[in-house]
Amino acid sequence: MQILFDNYKVCDTCRSLWGFSAYFKEYKLLLDTGSNGRVLLQNMKELGVDVQELEYVFITHSHWDHIGGLDSIIEINPNVTLFVPSSLSKHLIKDLKSLVKDVVVCGKKPQKLFGDLYTTGLLGEEMPEQSLILDTDFATVVTGCGHFGIENITKVAREVIGKDIQCVQGGFHLLGSDDAKILATIQALKSMGVRCAKPTHCSGNRAIELFLAEKFV
């Protein structure tokens, strides 16, 4: 996984704004699109990622800092398949269907996307969000913001693919959480067999520090 857009600097010549986007080269898949299309495209260029090579875009949830660059992506490369949450505006989904190759609307039920990629299905009521599961030898879950709780998402992912999750990455939604909450999250992940965690975006500086201190990154 290569992070393209984050509120933490992803390369010396890249720009940082609030939001998140990551690229999976082996799948030609982009997860989320950050908050700003111009900055996303600039960072992709700096990191050597060709927009024209994209075949899939996976949107975790409807917040502005995860879909802000979508229009810029599909303007350059409309020949993509979108995996979008059903919680998106029905009008936006209708418009997207007229702009790209295909739109797969994902609901609450987990499902296989293609190859060894799965969605957890939409989790949570206040802000429904799907996360990406890579069912490989080193099974991994990648979140956008992790509103449902990274430990809860991991539990669901284990049930979907029927084996332990080895690594969790992305936004863990721990910004502003106290040490007790963060440490409890770390212990919950370890108890489920998670071997590494790479928090970023809305995880917060303190959470990142504690995950590092626990030698969990």
UniProtKB/TrEMBL annotation:
Name of the protein described by the UniProt record: MBL fold metallo-hydrolase
Entry keyword set: Hydrolase
Pfam family, one: Anti-Pycsar_Apyc1
PANTHER family in UniProt: METALLO-BETA-LACTAMASE SUPERFAMILY PROTEIN (PTHR13754), METALLO-BETA-LACTAMASE SUPERFAMILY PROTEIN (AFU_ORTHOLOGUE AFUA_3G07630) (PTHR13754:SF13)
GO molecular function, one term: hydrolase activity
CDD domains noted in UniProt: DHPS-like_MBL-fold
InterPro entries given in the database record: DHPS-like_MBL-fold, Metallo-beta-lactamase_dom, RibonucZ/Hydroxyglut_hydro
Source species taxonomy: Bacteria, Pseudomonadati, Campylobacterota, Epsilonproteobacteria, Campylobacterales
